[in-house]
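User: Structure with adenosine-5-diphosphoribose, tokens only please.
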Amino acid sequence: MPKIILVEGDITKQRVDAIVNAANSSLMGGGGVDGAIHRAGGRTILEECKQIRADRYPDGLPTGQAVATTAGDLHATWVIHTVGPTYAKSEDRSHLLASCHTESLRVADEQGARSVAFPAISTGVYRYPIEEAATIALSTVAESNTAVKEVRFVLHGADAYAVFERALRAQMR
Ligand code: APR
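Assistant:
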């Protein structure tokens, strides 16, 4: 089980082996974390995303799956792009959000990453309630069988940090 730490801040500033991107299936960038990572990391990230689309995912990266690219100018070696589920009241998609975390850690293991930073996947544009997302993310990582030593959840703002802190404490009981 990796050590889990919570950080309030900007994921593009983290000094870790791999930074996880809350991407969309096109892998062509977007807003939120996706936009921040591509802006800070530079065009080499997008170039590798285009190559991955051409070689392996012509129809786009499916929800819940993950791929690695260079981290470009970020203080990391890799960016691991994963596609979170959009929230739907009518359908339980928690398994897809869990898969984002297990697949990102599997890719991290493939690359030999020992420290990984996650954002709060799906809790922005994809409207997943952050309380639910925090519980899924933290329990999935805690139960994962990975060689990654440190997992850092990087939360944007005090409110998001407080939600993850409560969820982590509840998990520890
Ligand atoms: N560092 C850390 N967290 C951030 C940052 C940042 N620089 N910027 C935003 N966040 C937080 C948001 O506040 C939210 O809690 O990341 C979480 C995820 O929000 P989004 O980035 O909107 O990601 P998501 O909800 O998974 O939606 C993905 O949004 O940006 C597009 O291309 C992306 O289509 C995809 C969709």
